[in-house]
Design goal:
about 0% strand; globular
Amino acid sequence: METQNAQKKAMLLMALCACLWSISGIFIKWISWSPFLIAGGRSLISAMVLGLYMYIAKIPVKVCGFSAGAGVSLAVSFLCFVSANKLTTAANAIVLQYTAPIFILIISVLFLHQKIKRREIVVVIITAAGIVLFFLDQLSPGNIAGNILGILAGLFLSIMFVLVGQGGDDDSIRMSGILFAHILTAAAGIPVGAFFTSSIAPSEIWFVIILRIF
């Protein structure tokens, strides 16, 4: 009974996560800033929120190759995803980011020499076919740059997953990698993005706060 309740709770939390995550495309479109400033600003807030959570939960910050690599990969994914949202539709950016399972399969086979189950291959093939059909008549010179950035966001997201997976079941590696990603995104995104942003409205600051807390 406890296991079933835990599974139901996990599913509800995942559904809530998906709903909250889906607002990113909407709010990014509403903010007139440079995509780098959006990514950097929201990551600055996220780093503070996540750091506070890790402190309260007593999760130590662990610096190692896996957490550092995951941090760099996820930071690049953040920057690519926000930039993709500005250059193409939010739906395109989100769908292309979730090419990550395809890249995870490729990386696992080519670099980690892992054996892949047939059902995993089937799922990835179906995912790839769906993405191809989705974009069969959507690619155009006006948004192809955004679509490419969306794919890169998926690639670097997959690298992050592979690295934290190689780090084992140590939750501190996963959490530290995410924390490093937000710190790096803020450090790179804010100064670069501020240079290309002409004005900042108070409402846009609230949009960024909502993006990164929720």
